[in-house]
Amino acid sequence: MTGPRRWSGNALADLPVVRQVLKSGDPTSEYKARALLLDEAPGSARLKKLRAAIGSSERARRLLAGRLPDGTIDKGPYRKWQGPHWTLYSLALIDYPPGDRSLLPLRDQVYDWLLDPAHLEFRQSLLLPGQEDRFRRCASQEGKLRDPRCREALELLAAKQRPDGGFPLELCNATTSDRLVTRGSRADWGPRGRTRTNPLVSIEALRVLAAARGHAG
């Protein structure tokens, strides 16, 4: 498998993109880089401090800015990307710290939606040929890097590495906006486009490729 120029072991810390993330001031990017790429223990004092900082970060604040006084969001639970479901999903994506009970109203909105009898009606429970397992597949991400069918996808990912060692956010179907707009997100997810390195995408791509090399032995 063709891999990035430098991304295994201690060399990850020497990548320009990783060095930049570590001094960026963005607690989410730094937390992910240290935990996922540099193997720092989540229980360490530094990572605990970073994760706590994520809870009060600008990105987290913007994601939660649409809440009403009762803690709910007055939009359909699956409204992209500002409804309760996607708000909680986005908070998980940035490693928002656990234990925030102010999020319970959003959780309850999602539960009320998912457990509604309407989800058992025909179109919601439809099974298509070749997709008999789609409910399980859509509910989980399984580690299958040993599967030879992943080889081509991993090679394609590796080929997209930029000179600084990072990876681009080639396509984003969300518009950053403080207002409710179609497929809008209140949070800024970083640089976009094939010629620009995106820190969050880079961390995830490097993590996958490092794991793939580990599986390959």
Describe the fold and architecture.
By secondary structure, this protein is mostly helical. The protein has one domain (9-117, 146-216). It is built from nine helices and two strands; from the N terminus they run H-H-H-H-H-H-H-H-E-E-H. A two-stranded parallel ribbon has the order 1-2. The longest helix is centred in the last third of the chain and has 18 residues, at 199-216. The protein is globular and about 50 Å long. Mean pLDDT is 83; it is low at 1-9 and 134-141.
Question: Nearest-angstrom radius of gyration?
Answer: 19 Å
Assembly annotation: single chain
Low-pLDDT sequence parts: 1-9, 134-141
Content-based structural category: mainly alpha
Order of helices and strands: HHHHHHHHEEH
Any descriptors?
two-stranded parallel sheet; 217 residues; mainly alpha
Briefly say what this structure is.
By secondary structure, the chain is mainly α. The protein is built from nine helices and two strands. It starts with 15 loop residues before the first helix and ends with a helix.
Secondary-structure map with pairings?
Layout lengths: L15 H7 L4 H11 L7 H11 L2 H6 L20 H10 L10 H11 L19 H6 L11 H9 L15 E2 L7 E2 L13 H18 L1
Parallel strand pairs: 1-2
Helix pairs in contact: 2-3, 2-9, 5-6
